Amino acid sequence: MSIIVKNLRRTFGTFQALRGIHLEIADTQLVALLGPSGSGKTTLLRIIGGLDFPDASHGNVVINGEDVTDSPAAERKAGFVFQHYALFNHLSVFENVAFGLDVRPPKTRPSKDAIRDRVLELLRLVQLQGLEQRLPSELSGGQRQRVALARALAIDPKVLLLDEPFGALDAKVRKDLRRWLRAFHQEIGVTTIFVTHDQQEALELADVVVVMNQGQIEQIGSPQQLYDHPATPFVYEFLGDVNKVRKPGRPELFYVRPHEVSILFAGDAKAELHAKIEHLFAAGPSARLTLRIQESRETLDADITRQQLEEMGLSEGDEVGVHLNLSPS
Amino acid sequence: MQANKRRRILPGFGLSLGFTVAYLGLVVLFPLLLVFVKASGLGWRGFYEALATDRVWAACRLTFGLSLLAGLLNGVFGLLIAWVLARYQFPGRRFLDASVDLPFAMPTAVAGIALTTLYAPNGWIGSLLKPYGIKVAFAPAGILIALVFIGLPFVVRTLQPVLEDLEVAQEEAAASLGASRWKTFQRVVLPQLVPALITGTTLAFARAVGEYGSVVFIAGNMPGKTEILPLLIITKLEQYDYPGATALASMMLVVSFGLLLLINYLQRKTLVRNQA
Amino acid sequence: MSAPSRSTQDPAWTRVLLISGAVGFLVLFLFVPLTLVFAEAFRKGIKVYADAVTEANALSAIVLTVTVALISVPLNAVFGIAASWAIAKFSFKGKSLLLSLIDLPFAVSPVVSGLVWILLCGTRGLFGPWLQEHNIQIVFAVPGMVLATVFVTFPFVARELIPLMQAQGNDQEYAALSLGASGWQTFRRVTLPNIKWALFYGIILCNARAMGEFGAVSVVSGHIRGETNTLPLHVEVLYNEYNSAAAFACASILSLLGLLTLGLKTFIEWRLRLHRQKH
After folding, report:
1. Contacts of C174 in chain B (CB under 8 A)
2. Most buried residue among A208, A236, B203, B228 by CB atoms closer than 10 A?
3. Residue C20: how many CB atoms within 10 A of its CB?
4. Which CATH number fits domain A243-324: 2.40.50.100, 2.60.40.3500, 3.30.360.10, 3.40.109.10?
5. A218-232 burial, b for 16+ CB within 10 Å, e for fewer?
6. Which pLDDT score, from 0 to 100, does residue B174 have?
7. How confident is the model at residue C123 (pLDDT cuts 50, 70, 90)?
8. Band of pLDDT at residue C80, cut at 50, 70 and 90
């Protein structure tokens, strides 16, 4: 289902958490809200889910054509997965997943058997069959995450909202779960928004990435667009490594990614700058050079292939020429 | 109003806060306020006359003096007990730990008659002290013992969590720098316990000032000698001296509020220190 | 708590000395008086004991004690739940002031806690004339004793619940709401199970104080035997009449109540610790 957020503001005391957010999300998309802490991404997610509200008459939330700005969370049918899962500690995995169906009024509540079938189906979907009777405290972090997901899905949500879904997991589980979530989203096809501060995660997983900073949206686009054509210096810096350099005789600052730095022999006529290799680290197919620019004394990171490194016979202390392949932006 | 209402995600704010404030106001604040209203009705002169008697002055000295002494004694013994419970493993430790709360759980009247019987001249302990001419029951010493009994858990329970949370690494660091155990305790452990120790002692003191049930039996209640403030209030009530009782009560309330504020301040300070 | 390493281990003689000091102090101040209560209660034999606790005035004192507790404890439990819901789940101005005010009754002398009701409802009190006109007896009667007990035990449940609910945060409640639960369902099915042990704990402590309260109740009770004497007041009367065996017999019942409270308290603390370790 589509989500439209219009002109949204949210103030906590004197702190402006959101300052005029406009966002349209198409049906079945997987969207990442990406930004540093304090950028307002979680506040935006909570407002969409009905767990927070915008300042009075400052903004609307429209889900599937219906203005839900003033509806309480219980009426929105937004499946919310909390950062620390917020599983009900005293209930079993089964009871946690069944909760959203159990609390329905008798008229719309499915029969006991129907609830049972639905819960077991969901647990199969998140690959937790056989763990129905466990308590949350008896599960691993990744398993809890999936129980929270199944619980949110049980109410047939119009949208799925995930707050830092992998934040509390260790690196290995994080990677596996990321891959799994991608496939899972394709399978269920529910519009999904997740919040993250990890650019790698956002770029790998999402169809659309919304970069936020200080309560505003910096840029919206596909991962490719964002990486190749960052709209602002903030996006440039936040997505991937970037060098900030000056060219001789030019006042402006240039943003250049390490792989966009060409290393030439010191005498090469194409060289714009001259630098000394301060540190060299080669692992895998590429090598990372840390350079000291002779003209400005600034440092510059450059990535080159292992092959080039060997062909040029570079080592620490060598002087080289540098050319910046600036993409037009 | 509408905008404010929809800010609350969870329901029941108005109901729960409304009930809380109404009940608090009705059961606690309004009655307490009335004491001050009644006392102010006496005027400064009446207030002064009600309080400026030798009997009141003697009761004040006795109550505050012995409460302070009891608080300090509790500070010493409370620290000892908290230290032993938090740091040493020995058989019966858990049992001892649980029993520290006995003065909280025992009705004060029971403690009162038990201590009196124990320290009376013919009691188990009183008879042992009698040959040396030491009189405990029906003397200030008896009041002190009752106040120490009632205040002990406050100090132990305030110190214990602080002691348990102390970093052992700090003591190891002190030891590695060549400090003896005693020096380590003095210079590293004790300074970190001081805020909690003061809080606990103040709590015990505050409780002692108002204590009635455990003291009234053992005190002897001789006007001017072993009569404590709470008892004096009751005596005045029984003599239908309402102005006198009200004046005394309002004075005690001011002291209690002062102590409560002090304790709140100390607890906040302890919290900040421990979080830093 | 990890075992202390050798460098932070006190020498054996220090340990023995300090442990003996602590144990000695506790034995002298806690266990000897407790033992004395039971020794004195049974000094004149089982029969005197049984007579003392089954005598009509003792029985009516027990009934009154239980009645007063049965009214005041639920009132303060409901208050505790309401106060902790408002304070822990919402942010509003004046919260810390409210927290301090809730603690107020703990700072007030029991005698003053009784006195306030005499000033309010006594014959010469604020509502005295009105109450007399309508023939309602509050002070020197059971209602006054309930009010005094409510005042004295006011903070117990709230104090246990507020820090726990603050620590638990609101996420589980939010999760329940986003799954479609109503406010009442959220409270009953999510909040209540999470606070039940702390609630029980608060109620136990509240009850022990309610049944054992002496000073406040003594002020507002008319000391009418068989009518307005609770068990602690009955103990006082017996003791002052030099009926030591009967006084200690009744005191032993109160001591058993105290020991039971202590046992339950220790059990619940153990449960709560277990609960915390699991999550």
Report:
1. 9-10
2. B228
3. 11
4. 2.40.50.100
5. bbbbebeebbeebee
6. 84
7. confident
8. very high
Domains of chain C by start residue, with CATH: 45-278 (1.10.3720.10)
Class of domain A3-238: alpha beta
Residues A191-216 have a mean pLDDT of 93
For residues B10 and C177, the answer to whether their CB atoms sit within 8 Å is yes
Q: Which residues in chain B touch residue C251, judged by CB atoms under 8 angstroms apart?
A: 107, 109-110, 113-114
Where along chain A do its domains lie?
Answer: 3-238, 243-324
Contact B237 C107 (CB under 8 A): no
Checking if the pLDDT of B238 tops 80, the result is yes
B109: which residues sit within 8 A by CB, 6+ positions away? Answer: B213, B214, B217, C212, C214, C232, C233, C235, C236, C251, C254
Tell me how far CA of residue B217 lies from CA of A299, B224, C237, in angstroms.
84, 17, 11
Instruction: Tell me the chain C residues in contact with residue A79 when contact means C-beta distances shorter than 8 Å.
Output: 178
Between A259 and A240, where is the model more confident? A259
The arithmetic mean of pLDDT across residues C264-271, rounded, is 91
Q: What angle do CA C5, C9, C15 make, to 5 degrees?
A: 150
Residue B5 has pLDDT above 50, yes or no: no
Per-residue confidence band for B275, with pLDDT thresholds at 50, 70 and 90: low
Minimal C-alpha gap between A100 and chain C (Å):
5
Chains sharing 3 or more CB pairs under 8 A with chain B: A, C
Residue A182 distance to chain C (closest CA, Å): 23
User: Among all chains, which residue has been given the structure tokens 């997505």?
Assistant: A239
Interface of B with A (CB under 8 A): 2-3, 6-7, 9
